[in-house]
Amino acid sequence: MANVRHATNNSTAVDRVWLALGQMYGSPFAEKFGPADKNRAGEWADMLGGLKPEQVRGALTKIRNGAMPLYELDLPRFRQLAAGALAPKIEERTPDT
């Protein structure tokens, strides 16, 4: 399966991530990060390189479910969340009962 870096060669994957994050966070996201211009898209494409599309979708799902408020969101944390390096917040964990 193609990784995210390959898909972002035409920046469509980064555009989809940007659109999804903008829809979740609204105008505060645009104020914090601005538009997904070519420079920013390249930066995100580089950092998300090597991740599978399922990992990126998983990170977006975690964010949608409250795993990361906007004030915590940045590119390295998004990548860590996608790669599984960030544990879900306590409220999201399933009890072992």
Give an account of the 3D structure:
With about 100 residues, this protein is mainly alpha-helical. Helices cover about 60% and strands about 0% of the residues. It has helices at about 5, 10-25, 25-35, 40-50, 55-65, 75-85. α2 packs across α3 (about 25-35). The protein is globular, with a radius of gyration of 13 Å.
Largest beta-sheet characterization: none
Strand content: under 5%
Q: Ends: how far apart?
A: 36 Å
Radius of gyration: 13 Å
- How many β strands by DSSP? 0
Low-pLDDT segments: 1-10
- Mean pLDDT rating: 78
Count of discrete alpha- or pi-helical segments spanning 4 or more residues: 6
Structural class: mainly alpha
Order of helices and strands: HHHHHH
Q: Per the principal axes of the C-alpha atoms, what is the gross shape?
A: globular
Tell me roughly what share of residues is in helical segments. Answer: 55-70%
Secondary structure blueprint with pairings:
Layout: H1 4-7, H2 12-25, H3 27-33, H4 38-48, H5 53-64, H6 75-83
Please tag this protein with its features.
single chain; 97 residues; mainly alpha; disordered N terminus
Task: Provide a compact summary of the structure.
With 97 residues, the protein is an all-alpha fold. 59% of the residues lie in helices and 0% in strands.
